[in-house]
Amino acid sequence: MLESTLLETIQTLQHQAERLEREATALRQALADVAEVLVSPASVVARYEIEGQTYEITQAEVDAVKAQVAKSWSDSALYELAVVKKMSRVLRERPNSEQDVYFFKTVEAIQAISVADGTAVEDTTELQNNAR
Known about the structure:
rod-shaped, single chain, 72% helix, 2 domains, 132 residues
């Protein structure tokens, strides 16, 4: 009698240990999935190819631009401003006159891309006036 109760207890504990091991494995996988998301770069919301260089824009960069503008702009305009801002970081080491020329050439290139994909900014003076 004591042996059968002891055997049943051992079997029950073995089943519980197996169940806990399965749960621990599932929890480890869930933790690995979360860790992968946390170490992944921010999701890219727009990608521009300009003069052979690719510029990727994240939602955080768009939000930062949105926080800096005085009035509400369309998402398309915010994306374009975000890519221009990112590009300006690259251009800071160039002479001012070259930076100005390059900036307006770049805005025109971005607008051409936006026209091609159907997200063009309607009024380009808005971009030009606020860029200065």
